[in-house]
Amino acid sequence: MSNRLAVFAVVVAALSLHTVYSPVLTSLPSLLLGLLLGLVVAETSLASPIQELCGLTSRHPDKVGLDVIHASEKGEGKTAKKQLDQRVMYGLQHAFLNLEVTGWWFNMGLWDKDKVPAMRFQDACKALVDKVTSHLDITSSSHILDVGFGCGDQDVYMAQVHKPARITGITIEPIQHHAAQDLVKRTPTPGTDINLYVADASKLPQFLESTPNLFASTTPSSDRFFSHVISIDSAYHYNTRAAFLKNAAQVLAPNTGRLALADMILAKPAPTSGFGLSIFKTVFGAMEVPPVNMKMMDEYRQDLVDAGFVDIEIECIEERVFSGLATHIENQTSRFGGMVGPGVKWTYSALAKGLWWLDRSKWLHFVVVKARYGPPPSS
Ligand SMILES: C[S@@+](CC[C@H](N)C(=O)[O-])C[C@H]1O[C@@H](n2cnc3c(N)ncnc32)[C@H](O)[C@@H]1O
């Protein structure tokens, strides 16, 4: 039994016993309260002292998971692990002193099946950016609007690879904007001017109105359009995505403006009523994905057409996304899980399980979309 489960069981048992002897609480509500409290306690900082009290853990200094990996890599199993645990002076705690964050990459990645699990997260993330931005005719005069830029790594990377004149980015999260500004400040991107803002993709027209300096002062007012709108692993969050597509079309240069997305849609129809529908709404609501965005391929394509896009290409790449990321999360958890709080570990473990389920159930498509705004150029 895992430590967390054990803490959960202890708290639930204690509260249930209390229920039996308590004249005040009736059994069902207090059992539910016990369950809730058990979950909260097991997932918060209260867990550690309780685990210690119950003798469920020791404050072993090298619980960074590396011991387990070393043992299993050598194929020595439990004996090796026991030996590793025996003599600890400094242990491996100094891993903390060696830690270096080399980026804040944040998309699901495009994983090379032959290279997982050795593939680095940032390489998988870059591969997804490459997939989205290839064949888009990005030139030294392009001005890209990057919507949902995460922490800016993709903007620096796009600048290095494609060297557009300008990248304007928006994110809804101020803390990510802060990290991105820092990255942009310390990373030279010769030839590309990167400007990042906090703004909501669902309110694109308001953002444009309130930010008059988006276009070079020399640009004629008739030409105040972006050459590209890009949104990587983010558009399913927008409220609504259909409205975002319409707004994106309006800011793209007619006939030549290009849209490129990495996005998620349904591969199987959503439940239409009852308990299934409630679960569907709850799950996507919890992930801050408006359920109305979860559309099947035909409806999704129609949204693009309705927004005015042509030359629409949609490629499904989920087979190279979900399982690769799930494997990576499991590796990171076994190597470094001991260094993060239980809440973080729990969140990522749940995510990995969800991704494996998605990989098996084929319930969602992860798509790369490319399209052009406006009618075909007259020949
Ligand atoms: C999974 S992350 C992907 C980030 C980034 N594109 C990358 O690939 O590293 C989704 C991003 O979308 C951003 N986001 C979600 N809803 C948004 C909205 N309405 N407007 C702008 N950004 C949004 C989040 O803040 C988050 O950074």
From TrEMBL:
EC code(s) of this entry: 2.1.1.103
Keyword field contains Transferase: yes
Catalytic activity: N-methylethanolamine phosphate + S-adenosyl-L-methionine = N,N-dimethylethanolamine phosphate + S-adenosyl-L-homocysteine + H(+); N,N-dimethylethanolamine phosphate + S-adenosyl-L-methionine = phosphocholine + S-adenosyl-L-homocysteine + H(+)
Record-level Gene Ontology MF annotations: phosphoethanolamine N-methyltransferase activity
UniProt record, GO biological process: methylation
Limits of the Methyltransferase type domain: 145-255
Keywords (A to Z) from UniProt: Methyltransferase, Transferase
This protein's pathway: Phospholipid metabolism; phosphatidylcholine biosynthesis; Lipid metabolism
Xref: Gene3D superfamilies: Vaccinia Virus protein VP39 (3.40.50.150)
Name used for this protein in its record: phosphoethanolamine N-methyltransferase
Lineage of source species: Eukaryota, Fungi, Fungi incertae sedis, Mucoromycota, Mortierellomycotina
